[in-house]
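Field log, afternoon session.

UNIT: design team B
ACTIVITY: writing a sequence onto a fixed backbone
BACKBONE:
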């Protein structure tokens, strides 16, 4: 039976779950695609070739057992498929929704190389875990025997949440500190609901709370306690704050009203979705309704901004990016979704100035051309002389990526080592910082990256922290 279920990629075409019509989905913040019906999920999973060297798993940061849970799905063994998927990831249904599969697992699928279209791995992963939640297969966190040791985690984003679960499983008391009023970090406030509905994140957080993990929300290290204070409270500390400082644009008029940061804009929208009071949204400062919107940038955050603006009822939405489509860092699928919803992309262009005085009224931009490769190997954009043009704009959203904040100063910890990029310096093997017992993981170490890498880092650092605390406890017993 098992052999009959697989290797159907020649006679069975690739099929993603149906997307809602663009005009309808642009009216709300619901996810744009429905979930597979059971027969469709089994059929698509059965396209897997079960290849000897599974590049999908190799290129997954979590090294998920993808061919194995695809086989189980194709055979109708969904509960086993979920258990295997869950064994390597604390958030499989979240990764299934927001991972750029076209750049990771699906982009490296052997079937994709053969011209038959990749197995729809992300959609199947989402289906498996959503089914598990519906059927009650998602079990509580299995809390290990109490170790008597306590961990403080700074940051409730994906790295912090992942580490918290593994450390609680090991039997440690776990306290998570976050400056926002809800846990989840960018999962909660940075990613729009049309990619990740917030109930999906909140039920994960609730599961951790039910396991006895204590969340201290609205808690800012450096204001409510110093890093040294937390070190005195806990046996070890994890810094998992992510990177949130927006990269700037150097151009005349950049400080005008109506020129805003991407994360500020997305957070306002997500808070509104929660039903929070958001004065800057209500007064129009962070609301695209009726406005001509220009988003500067070409990554996934820029795609989140343009698609949010469409849903807010913008008069027009343009995305200004200095390279061409083939060289943009964001997901090509997201570009396609945005185009379907009415976003106009202005490729090979960059802002030179923002007009309007106190309040922005337009963007002066220059056409770009691609020159010699830069340090990353990508062809560097350069200005095409005499190619200036103007775009009307009532709202300009800067989405050029994120950098690390000045943590030593913010945390009141001048001895915390940082790199020249402002990220926390951590040992490559132990993941410990320059401070004994203080570890770091996620974007605050590697720079702005993917959620799946943050989950991987959280998993890895939890193992290092557990080993360090156990060695410390054993040494204390021997000394006694």
């Amino acid at each position: 039976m098992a052999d009959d279920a697989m290797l159907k990629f020649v006679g069975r075409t690739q099929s993603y779950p149906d997307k809602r019509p663009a005009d309808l989905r642009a009216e709300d913040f619901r996810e744009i695609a429905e979930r597979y019906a059971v027969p469709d999920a089994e059929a698509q999973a059965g396209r897997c070739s079960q290849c000897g060297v599974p590049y999908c798993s190799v290129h997954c940061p979590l090294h998920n057992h993808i061919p194995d849970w695809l086989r189980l799905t194709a055979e109708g063994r969904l509960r086993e498929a979920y258990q295997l998927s869950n064994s390597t990831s604390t958030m499989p249904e979240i990764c299934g929704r927001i991972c750029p599969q076209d750049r990771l697992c699906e982009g490296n699928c052997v079937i994709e190389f053969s011209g038959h279209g990749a197995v729809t791995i992300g959609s199947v992963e989402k289906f498996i875990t959503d089914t598990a939640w519906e059927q009650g297969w998602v079990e509580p966190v299995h809390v290990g025997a109490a170790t008597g040791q306590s961990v403080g985690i700074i940051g409730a984003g994906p790295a912090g949440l992942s580490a918290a679960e593994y450390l609680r499983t090991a039997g440690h008391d776990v306290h998570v500190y976050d400056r926002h009023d809800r846990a989840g970090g960018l999962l909660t406030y940075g990613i729009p609901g049309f990619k990740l509905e917030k109930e999906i994140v909140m039920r994960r957080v609730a599961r951790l709370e039910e396991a006895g993990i204590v969340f201290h929300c609205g808690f800012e290290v450096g204001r409510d306690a110093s890093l040294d204070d937390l070190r005195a409270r806990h046996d070890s500390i994890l810094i998992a704050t992510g990177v949130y400082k927006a990269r700037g644009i150097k151009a005349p008029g950049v400080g005008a009203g109506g020129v805003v940061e991407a994360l500020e804009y997305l957070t306002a929208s997500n808070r509104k979705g929660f039903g929070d009071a958001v004065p800057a949204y209500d007064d129009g400062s962070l609301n695209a309704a009726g406005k001509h919107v220009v988003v500067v940038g070409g990554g996934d955050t820029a795609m989140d901004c343009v698609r949010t603006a469409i849903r807010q009822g913008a008069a027009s939405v343009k995305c200004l990016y200095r390279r061409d489509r083939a060289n943009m860092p964001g997901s090509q699928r997201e570009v396609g979704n945005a185009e379907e919803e009415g976003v106009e992309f202005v490729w090979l262009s960059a802002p030179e100035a923002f007009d309007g005085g106190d309040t922005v009224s337009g963007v002066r931009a220059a056409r770009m051309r691609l020159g010699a490769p830069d340090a990353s190997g990508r062809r560097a954009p350069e200005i095409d002389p005499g190619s200036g043009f103007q775009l009307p704009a009532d709202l300009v959203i800067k989405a050029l990526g994120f950098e690390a904040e000045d943590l030593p100063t913010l945390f009141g910890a001048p001895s915390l080592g940082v790199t020249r990029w402002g990220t926390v310096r951590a040992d490559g093997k132990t993941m410990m910082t320059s401070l004994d017992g203080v570890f770091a993981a996620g974007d605050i170490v590697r720079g702005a990256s993917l959620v799946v890498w943050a989950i991987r880092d959280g998993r890895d650092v939890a193992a290092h922290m557990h080993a360090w605390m156990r060695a410390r406890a054993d040494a204390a017993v021997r000394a006694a």
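LOG NOTE: The mean pLDDT is 95.
NEXT ACTIVITY: expression trials, pending approval
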